[in-house]
Amino acid sequence: MILMGLLEKAGQMQNEEEVKPAKKSKPKPVKAAKPAKKARAKRSKKKKSNDLDDIDVTPKVAKTLPDEYVLSKKPARFARSLVDFIVTFGWTVPVVALLGFGSANTDITYFLMGGALLSIFNLVAMPFMTNRTVGNYASLTQYINHKGNPPVFIHQTLKAMTVLYIGIGLFMILSAKVGTSDADSVRFGIGLAILAIPLTDWIIAKVRHETKQGLWDSIFFAYMVSHTRSEDAESTGFFGKLESSGDWLKDKGWLGDESSED
């Protein structure tokens, strides 16, 4: 009886388990999908306008001798230097002679004034008015730059002062009394600095012997070329006479042969 009661009770418990509904599993909430971000349309980059694009850039001109000109020959260069030296500094010869052999009462004021005016005329007035010196007229030469134009007139003024640089430099050095108790080092230094100008001119002329340019020629990009006299040029007047003197020297062959390389 006890056994039957236990079996009956076990059967009831089994039936209750079958009748009991199964627990519903709670559905997991589904997260709403986030809407995809709309891709922003890329703005077209505007090209920045460069103000430099509007500027017209002038191509650099080669600073060399223009093709239509020919460098002057060595005899013509020597003739130019000789004539310019005589005109510019020739007046110093009688002045030195008067100072050395004249009496103590000799007045050289007029010689100095006349000589100074002659030097200024050849070194300043002539280049300013005609772009040439008396020596250029006599040797049928002229100076032009890399553009084919005459350089600024101060170029010839500085170039023709080589003798003056040497004279002043030597005077300053000799008057400095170097080696004595009264030596003036400042005066000596100034003299050396002045002498350095013609020395530099000579060195540059040796280095640039192909273009025959010295210190001042290199600074001003100047070349000494042969001057061809135009047929309609005047043969009268002061400048006409100077030009005629160059023709005379050329006919004598003193300005060199045009067919020669030098």
UniProtKB/TrEMBL annotation:
Ribonucleoprotein among keywords: no
Highest rank taxon of the organism: Archaea
Transmembrane residue ranges: 82-102, 108-131, 152-174, 186-205
Parts forming coiled coils: none
Region span, Disordered: 1-53, 243-262
Keywords: Membrane, Transmembrane, Transmembrane helix
Regions of compositional bias (Basic residues) in chain numbering: 22-48
Protein name: RDD domain-containing protein
Native source organism of the sequence: uncultured marine group II/III euryarchaeote AD1000_65_C10
